[in-house]
Amino acid sequence: MSELMKSMGAAASGMAAQSARLRLSAENIANVDTPGYRRKLASFEVIAREDGGVVKAGRVRLDRSDLPQVYDPSHPLADAQGYVEGSTVDLMVELADAREAQRSYEANIKMMDQARAMTSGLMDLLRR
Predict the structure, then answer these.
(1) What pairs with residue 61 in β-bridges?
(2) How many CB atoms are closer than 10 A to CB 102?
(3) What pTM, to 2 d.p., does this model score?
(4) What is the pLDDT of residue 128?
């Protein structure tokens, strides 16, 4: 029974971590056109391997790549040459990351449902 609880704990921690990753992806998508915005990146940390591989979202990191220079002389933040610092967010990468996080979240839900069904079956057997 404790192994099933460990698997449910691992699935719950995976859902929480993927939820944090999806939230960062949404923030990045919302700021795709914000001048000077740096993409936020999620990392995961393993908390306990002996307890079923529980993970959590780690520290949020910022993309340290160079900001692209966009020519827009009419922009209020443009420099003397007419360039504005763009953002490091690539919309296609963010959409792919969001889809991957969503699918991982759904996989953890299925794992949680399976463990719950197995626990329910075990309880039914014990009642007989």
Answers:
(1) 41
(2) 15
(3) 0.79
(4) 81
